[in-house]
UniProtKB/TrEMBL annotation:
<dbReference type="InterPro" id="IPR016874">
    <property type="entry name" value="TcmP-like"/>
</dbReference>
<dbReference type="GO" id="GO:0032259">
    <property type="term" value="P:methylation"/>
</dbReference>
<keyword id="KW-0489">Methyltransferase</keyword>
<dbReference type="GO" id="GO:0008168">
    <property type="term" value="F:methyltransferase activity"/>
</dbReference>
<keyword id="KW-0808">Transferase</keyword>
<dbReference type="InterPro" id="IPR029063">
    <property type="entry name" value="SAM-dependent_MTases_sf"/>
</dbReference>
<dbReference type="Pfam" id="PF04072">
    <property type="entry name" value="LCM"/>
</dbReference>
<dbReference type="InterPro" id="IPR007213">
    <property type="entry name" value="Ppm1/Ppm2/Tcmp"/>
</dbReference>
<protein>
    <submittedName>
        <fullName>Polyketide synthase</fullName>
    </submittedName>
</protein>
Amino acid sequence: MLATLYGRALDSRRPNSVLNDVEAARAVTRIDYDFRKTKMEGTSAVGVAIRAKVLDDWTRSFLDTNPTATVLHLACGLDTRVQRVSPPDTVRWLDLDLPDVVALRTRLLDLPSGDYRLVGASVTSDSWLDDVPADRPTVAVFEGLSMYLHKQDGKRLIERITNRFPSGQLLFDCYGSLGIKLQKLVPAVRNAGATLRWGIDDPHEIETWHPGLTCLDALRSVDMPGLENLPLPGRVSLRVLARIPGLRDAGRILRYRF
Ligand SMILES: C[S@@+](CC[C@H](N)C(=O)[O-])C[C@H]1O[C@@H](n2cnc3c(N)ncnc32)[C@H](O)[C@@H]1O
């Protein structure tokens, strides 16, 4: 959570920033922590910003068509997505993360105006979803979450969302199983002492979890729009990765409709 926040802050300080997340940069200055420990630097920081931009753009696109929608921004961490997307007042926006994270978020970031709720709960518990009215098209965006869940918890989350709301979209990133096997090679994961569990190799498998659930996009990390903004060493590494079967599928960003 601190690593990705720092990545967006670093990106915002670049002259050709991808995300321009000045709120992230402001939050970083308010945390007394040596962010160099996250091992975020040039390429990984811009990579985080590029991934966030794809999910921001997909969220905006859903809200353009559904201006009275509900947004479930799950595992929000310290991400200022609601400020970046800046939804109209007609949108109901819910940011959710574990209670400790929500307490920190309340101290660090200004609460946006409008129909906004910040909820401290686990995505695996039932109660928070029962409290969200099921009256509107709903987009659930969860970045940097799926890989931390056990597959059965991820499946149950997707089933509960798709069963509850009349229609909507799911927007999230995932690792492939090779990415899960090689997780200790990712500095931010290694340094956080985190354990990644769930890898998705076939995005179509998820379509079988709810009638009408359809994969609209499965963008591989090596094919994301905006990669030309990476520093040169990052662009070269990605060109090489894109040619290696298995490794080129190590990460994806997924968009489903239901
Ligand atoms: C890698 S961080 C990503 C945070 C944010 N989405 C971002 O991109 O900066 C993973 C986030 O998932 C949250 N998380 C992990 N397990 C969770 C759970 N069961 N319920 C809710 N949040 C969870 C963590 O607290 C953390 O904020």
